[in-house]
Amino acid sequence: MFYREAGDFKTSYADDSQTFPIRFDRLRYYAVMAVAFGVIPFFINDYWANAVFVPFLIYAIAALGLNILTGYCGQVSLGTGGFMAVGAYAVYKLMTAFPDVSILIHVLLAGGITAMVGVLFGLPSLRIKGFYLAVATLAAQFFLVWLFNKVPWFYNYSASGQISAPERTILGQAVTGANTTAPAKYLFCLIILVALAWLARNLTRGTVGRKWMAIRDMDIAAEIIGVNPLTTKLSAFAISSFYIGVAGALFFAVYLGAAEVGEAFGIQKSFLILFMIIIGGLGSIFGSFAGAAFMVLMPVLLKNLLVGQLGWATDLAAHLELMIVGALIVIFLIAEPHGMAQLWRLAKEKLRLWPFPH
Amino acid sequence: MNQMNPEGYVTADGRKIGPVLMEMKNISLRFGGVKAITDISFDIREGEIRAIIGPNGAGKSSMLNVISGFYVPQDGEVWFRGYKRGPMKPYQVARLGIARTFQNIALFDGMSVLDNIMTGRLTLMKSGLFSQAMWWGKAEKEETEHREKVEKIIDFLEIQPIRKTPVGRLPYGLKKRVELARALAAEPKLLLLDEPMAGMNVEEKEDMCRFILDVNDEFGTTIALIEHDMGVVMDLSDRVVVMDYGKKIGDGTPDEVRSNPDVINAYLGVSHD
Amino acid sequence: MPDQLLYAIEAGLNGLMAGVLYALVALGFVLIFKASGIFNYAQGVLALFAALTLVGFQNGQIPFAHLINAIFGTDLHTFGWQLPAIVAIVLAAGVMVILSIIIERYVLKHLVNQAPIILFMATIGLAYFLEGLGDIMWGADIKKLDVGLPQGINETIDTVTYNAFGYGFFIDNLDIVASVVAALLVISLTIFSQYSKQGRALRAVADDHQAALSVGISLRFIWVLVWSIAGFVALVAGIMWGSKSGVQFSLSLIALKALPVLMLGGFTSIPGAIVGGLIIGMGEKLFEFFVGPMIGGATENWFAYVLALLFLVFRPQGLFGEKIIERV
């Protein structure tokens, strides 16, 4: 009854192209932001931060990035894990080389470095398409992981071959290192995520976004109506990799604290992020959030249910999780290739007319 | 004959035709050993509706693809607005002001009608990545300005009610119209239409004819079109190029072409009298 | 001959043998791709699943024993019998056929007319599902697979090369068997597709789905057939690889190696799959031999992909693929 666009008239084109054209949506958005910034930080503890919120926020950034490349620009990448590793190792080198510079700047720089690497591996996308490209991005995945494993300079010649994040502060609050409190981790990631999501939304609703989608939907036609495929695809690779690099940097510095490249950023991570955007919704900002939330929450719930309640062995639960994830991917691709975001949209369309559908 | 006047001429129904806009000089195109186009020359004048006709496999679509820069001919020159066009990518050709529609509709299925038409204006939009990411100043202003232009085209082609519908859901006839809208949105100097009436019923054909004539009349857009339907072509166009087996066999006004013996042979088979 | 060169030749020969196994997995990919346009990422997991099933049957394991134990609190493990290898292989092949029918019925049928990339992602989902299923059915521990294939150094080659060059080449008997089996498989597949009725239907489907349907070929039957054959090829690959290094998860990563093989050989060409496999197998061993020591080793992890990537940039259709003409 409250969800209405009737009576919500637009008097300018700017009004019509805003992010939440319907008043109820806008209000709900403000409410979510108020809870995220005003309520959760006061209640969050270490378990919730580490099991749910921080991974969700970080994966949401990575999913946004991959969604820009795959969902909007149509270039499937299986190199996400490798690019996250670039972000992680970049931020590690920057943190240890320039301890006095703010961690925030390091994270953004790490994103920038990843963007450059992304463009490099994106170059072949001009010649090869579809799953050929997807397989080609595997080259990035395996090469990068190998590189960080084999070249000691990247992990500062540490004996274990691991990288670990030293303590860095923002406004006197530690955001990395062992002394970081749950609210600090949470807020740091949240602020970055909100800023990046806002930028992604702006990019995707304007000219750049239309170019990406044009290339995605029909690349030849796009080129004939004046889209330069080179700059368009590379811009998608650059921006996508920036997001993924930032996510990798946060994943290492804030979430893990210490990382070994093959374990933290292996091929499984690439698939995880890809699954997030398939289940959440290709080509949808909201879908990136929904998919990240789903893929973070599901294992936690399954584990609590099967291991905690029923007393199953952990490995059995893990195998069942594989099956469930696999089946869900297939089911979503069959039933709703646009993922949870599309289900959400359909529900809203129904609501808009409810209770008088005619 | 007044059509040979380099400065232009006035048609029977009072439209002004300007000087030569595009000239194709001795174009030849091969795919491996197959000759798609052999040594064809013709010109297109400003404000004109120019048709390219011919039986199946005559090389019409290849010719259109040469004009729009999708195929690069092995021999010959393309002159546009007084300059010889060097080797160019299709998107660069689009920026010169050449827009087109496609025989098999090539819309962006995942986007709304409005977004599809907005893509037509991509070549005219200038705001940078950064200002778009921030959605400040220039980007937002530009978006609104271009939206106004696009809305005019939406009004013109009478597709207001489907503005926000995803293109994938539209019926065939409307898709064709949206495609025309996208091409028009680019404000082209030269508009190429690849079989705009293919697969349409009589009513839709009439609508499309009306739009083509209106576009030419109101915006003064030069139009080059390929069409199978002889009746439509003869009614619409000022001058017609006839192709057969990759060669030009006729060129002139509809009446001239109609009485050309080669053209009759190509369409009706060789007569043996 | 200098030692260095001899070692290199030996490494190259071993690479060729490894390449045969890549080619074997790649063969499964090509079959499915040709018949249905599906880029089947799950092919490697099929091989893993087939090998797990084979070992399970051989050792008389009770399927889903862990799951049953967890739910009902029982303590089941095996039926307590050992099946002869040949019986187990037949049974495992039967399971692969049933699996193909299930996949066609519940996955492929619903994905007709989707974009290739969607199909590709669906097979990634399928791969996850099968991996989980295999683990739940048979347990995730590393298993030894022995169907009685000869293993260990081939003495004849060792002796002959020692007498000729003063250095005996180490070539595993298993690799030789694998090469022979792969060759037989390719020959019989070729004969099947060229001369049998189903084979002709298969080629028709590969050419054009619509046209094949219109002359009365059942697409669904062909798909089941192709997936069954691919399942059988996977079983063979699983046996070879499993005998060599045990049945474990890393087996499905071999499948990933088949991808660059395909990119090199072209997705639609059976000879391409074989030549591609040999090039990749030999290339990565030689690269590791010559360049590996200088840059830290373990280059096999990425060499195949980078080679395929570079190759594709210059020849997007692969070695034997047909040139792509773009149209509007």
Automatic annotation (TrEMBL), chain A:
Bilayer-spanning residue ranges: 27-44, 50-69, 76-95, 101-123, 130-148, 236-259, 271-296, 316-335
Signal peptide positions on this chain: none
Subcellular location: Cell membrane
UniProt keywords, alphabetically: Cell membrane, Membrane, Transmembrane, Transmembrane helix
Keyword Cytoplasm: no
Any one Pfam family match given in the protein's UniProt record, by short name: BPD_transp_2
Membrane topology: Multi-pass membrane protein
Coarse class of the protein's main subcellular location: membrane
Protein name per Swiss-Prot or TrEMBL: Branched-chain amino acid ABC transporter permease
Organism: Albidovulum marisflavi
Highest classification ranks of the organism: Bacteria, Pseudomonadati, Pseudomonadota, Alphaproteobacteria, Rhodobacterales
From TrEMBL, chain B:
PROSITE patterns in the cross-refs: ABC_TRANSPORTER_2 (PS50893)
Keyword Cell inner membrane appears in the UniProt entry: no
One annotated GO molecular function: ATP binding
InterPro entries: AAA+_ATPase (IPR003593), ABC_AA/LPS_Transport (IPR051120), ABC_transporter-like_ATP-bd (IPR003439), BCA_ABC_TP_C (IPR032823), P-loop_NTPase (IPR027417)
Matching Gene3D superfamilies: P-loop containing nucleotide triphosphate hydrolases
SMART domains with a match to the protein in the record: AAA
Cited SUPFAM superfamilies: P-loop containing nucleoside triphosphate hydrolases (SSF52540)
Keyword Nucleotidyltransferase tagged: no
Keyword entries, A-Z: ATP-binding, Nucleotide-binding, Transport
Domain ABC transporter residue range list: 22-270
Protein name: ABC transporter ATP-binding protein
Species of origin: Albidovulum marisflavi
Lineage: Bacteria, Pseudomonadati, Pseudomonadota, Alphaproteobacteria, Rhodobacterales
UniProtKB/TrEMBL annotation, chain C:
Keywords: Amino-acid transport, Cell membrane, Membrane, Transmembrane, Transmembrane helix, Transport
Domain of life: Bacteria
Major location category of this protein: membrane
One Pfam family this sequence matches: BPD_transp_2
UniProt keyword annotation of Transport present: yes
CDD domains in alphabetical order: TM_PBP1_LivH_like
Topology class, membrane: Multi-pass membrane protein
TM segment ranges: 12-33, 45-67, 79-99, 111-130, 176-196, 217-241, 261-281
Subcellular location: Cell membrane
Family listed: Belongs to the binding-protein-dependent transport system permease family. LivHM subfamily.
PANTHER family noted in UniProt: ABC TRANSPORTER PERMEASE PROTEIN, BRANCHED-CHAIN AMINO ACID TRANSPORT SYSTEM PERMEASE PROTEIN LIVH
Name of this chain's protein: Branched-chain amino acid ABC transporter permease
Source species: Albidovulum marisflavi
